[in-house]
What does this fold into?
Amino acid sequence: MRGPLTILGVPIDSVGTAGGTELGPVTLRELLGPEGFEDAGDTSQQIRGLERDPRNGWLAFDDIVKMTAEVRGRVAELTAEGKVPVVLGGCCTLLPAALAGARDSLGEIGLAYFDGHLDLFTGRTSPTGEGADFPVATTLGIAPDELLAELGSTPLVPPGRMVMIGARDEEELEMIAPFPEGLNIGRIEYRDDLRHEDLAKVGQSIAAELAADGGRFWLHLDVDVLDREGFPATDYLMPDGLSIAELKALMAPLGTSEGLVGVDITCFNPEKDPDHACGTALADLMRTTLGV
It folds into this structure.
């Protein structure tokens, strides 16, 4: 039986300024409500800076390193206590730190990665330098040495135990080439691959794969996997994404799996959601998906 769901807020935005996704945790915490969750508060390290590091091309790199150390420690503490962190972001720059923390206390884990992007940029290929361009690359050990030192041994997740779901940015694929080829990622379900599938069965197969033989895994959600018409409260809007109903069908078998060790919800920008319609839908999605 898995441990208690425990909220941890990570109020960051890798654009390097205040506001935006930094405001996601406080808004989502309120919309989720306390029932069914413990609460571990928020991390404190913010991301500030508008210049790319000349050594590696990352924006606000020193703050990202500090944030990584803090999040890794907090997630390691929670998972060591048998709790299941529900990490409210913030942007997805936090993901490698969360994976490192879970790995520290639990050993090998897998990863279900719901995201409209593959996030395999490097400091050389990224058009922005924002930390949110790099989480999968960093997870695989493709990152500056100072950051890798804060994460411990990499890859944080064996590539063969990574499942990536919902990517659809053709321009990104051109810029990160030749990735993802040669990285040995276990399974990539592009958005186009899902159009004519029974999504509940796809979700069940992913959950079964990641939890096979007692395996454990982390669940990542970047809300830009959703279609921009149905969910405009994020910063990188794209057409042809999943609907909320489709995402529920895919995620539900994972969110209720005994193999789940943690989840993060990222890139929700409340400043683009004045009537709380998107936030309310997201909170309902998470409560349903996690079986609360």
User: Anything to note?
Assistant: Strands lie at 5-10, 38-42, 84-89, 110-114, 162-165, 187-189, 217-222, 260-266. The chain has a mean pLDDT of 97. The longest strand covers residues 260-266.
